[in-house]
Amino acid sequence: xxxxxxxxxxxxxxxxxxxxxxxxxxxxxxxxxxxxxxxxxxxxxxxxxxxxxxxxxxxxxxxxxxxxxxxxxxxxxxxxxxxxxxxxxxxxxxxxxxxxxxxxxxxxxxxxxxxxxx
Length: 118
Prior knowledge:
By secondary structure, this protein is mainly alpha-helical. The chain has one domain. The protein is built from four helices and two strands; from the N terminus they run H-H-H-E-E-H. The protein has a two-stranded antiparallel sheet with strand order 1-2.
């Protein structure tokens, strides 16, 4: 099985699982899944977030997802318990499709680590 085919199959399985759990079966998009990862990483799942906090949650998720690729490194938790990352290496210039593939690959890896998918 090619790497692209495997990624596509794992991505579809993951979207199915998360959509059934968090959106009554309506497919979650990439941004929604990134947001969920941010909430998971913050660890405060039962609260409402303001608009700017939602953006920060997505930033946390992106940093966490790209950390294994060497782009970010966890730095510290602030007084409110929010994780902070520092840039280790600037992200390369990627086309929209390439960004999407990188994020899907990172998300699939994240959930493979947590054994939500195989």
